[in-house]
TrEMBL record:
Classification lineage: Bacteria, Bacillati, Actinomycetota, Actinomycetes, Pseudonocardiales
InterPro entries xref list: MTH1187/YkoF-like, Thiamine_BP
UniProt protein name: Thiamine-binding protein domain-containing protein
Record-linked Pfam families: Thiamine_BP
Gene3D superfamilies tied to this protein: 3.30.70.930
Domain Thiamine-binding protein stretches: 6-83
Length: 85
């Protein structure tokens, strides 16, 4: 089963370099063999359930350890629409 996840880590630090917690979250996904779409307001990633769920658990742990004080996460079964879930 393929999943799509979108998450943000806070606090936002405005313009300039992304905060350490956002970079650390992205790097966790890369270490799991995934390539996230990393943006200024959040990160999205698609992957198989067996790979993505453990990687997301590590993302939450690592982001908190590197300064995040809030993580907002949404996971959707890829290929479904919000009104079908």
């Amino acid at each position: 089963m393929m999943l799509r996840a979108e998450f943000t880590t806070e606090p936002f630090e405005g313009e300039g370099e992304p905060p350490a917690h956002a970079v650390a979250a992205r790097d966790c996904l890369r270490a799991a063999g995934l390539e996230p779409d990393f943006g200024p307001l959040g990160t999205s990633i698609t992957g198989d359930r067996e790979t993505l769920l453990p990687a997301l658990a590590k993302v939450v742990e690592t982001a908190l350890d590197t300064g995040a004080n809030r993580i907002t996460l949404q996971v959707t079964v890829d290929g479904t629409h919000d009104d079908e879930v």
